[in-house]
């Protein structure tokens, strides 16, 4: 897991990954009223989401095998939980089509808080849960970029 300001993304990923993401953020107007999926170069895709935050307590955590998950916060504040998959109980087996494996809520996990223009990058070994709140439910707008694993090689 890596996090930081979006301007520093180039410190963590190669240019052929960073350039399409930053170009998308600079040149795309997001309709915050609907969830949309966008196709970017290099097999990267983006999902724009506007939703209410929630308590992470009791929520399922997820992991992916084919893609890295880059969560970028457009507006609001978001809490994300993350942990390793060691000793976790699977609630839904891996589905290749969705590239998603679900786990029951873990007994212990770490949290990260994102502010506007910040990102967190989850690797396949990072089991995570998004859309968390600090105290009260708020509206968050975010973009999740799905980055194919082969781009890292």
Describe this structure in words.
The chain has 153 residues and is mainly β. Helix content is 8%, strand content 46%. It contains one helix and twelve strands; from the N terminus they run βαβββββββββββ. A six-stranded antiparallel beta sheet has the order 1-10-5-12-3-2, with no helix packed on it. A three-stranded antiparallel beta sheet has the order 4-8-7, with no helix packed on it. Strands 9-6-11 form a three-stranded antiparallel beta sheet, with no helix packed on it. The two termini are 18 Å apart.
Q: What fraction strand?
A: over 45%
Largest sheet: 6 strands, antiparallel
How are the strands ordered across the major sheet? 1-10-5-12-3-2
Give the count of helical stretches.
Answer: 1
End-to-end Cα distance, whole Å, is: 18 Å
Shape: globular
Helix content: under 10%
Mean pLDDT: 95
Radius of gyration: 15 Å
- The total of beta strands comes to 12
- Computed structural class: mainly beta
Succession of helices and strands: EHEEEEEEEEEEE
Residue windows where pLDDT falls under 50 for at least 5 positions: none
Structure characteristics:
153 residues; mainly beta; three-stranded antiparallel β-sheet; 12 strands; 8% helix; 46% strand; globular
Give a nutshell description of this structure.
This protein is 8% helix and 46% strand. The chain has 153 residues and is mainly beta.
């Amino acid at each position: 897991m890596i996090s930081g300001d979006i301007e520093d993304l180039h410190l963590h990923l190669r240019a052929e990954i960073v350039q399409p993401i930053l170009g998308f953020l600079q040149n795309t107007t997001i309709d915050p009223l609907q969830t949309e999926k966008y196709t970017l170069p290099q097999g990267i895709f983006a999902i724009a989401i506007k939703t209410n935050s929630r308590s992470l307590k009791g929520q399922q955590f997820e992991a992916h095998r084919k893609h890295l998950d880059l969560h970028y916060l457009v507006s609001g504040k978001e809490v994300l939980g993350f942990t390793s998959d060691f000793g976790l109980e699977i609630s839904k087996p891996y589905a290749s089509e969705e590239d998603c494996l679900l786990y029951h809520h873990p007994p212990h996990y770490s949290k990260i808080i994102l502010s506007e223009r910040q990102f967190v990058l989850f690797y396949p070994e990072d089991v995570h849960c998004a859309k968390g709140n600090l105290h009260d439910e708020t509206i968050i707008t975010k973009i999740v970029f799905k980055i194919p694993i082969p781009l890292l090689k």
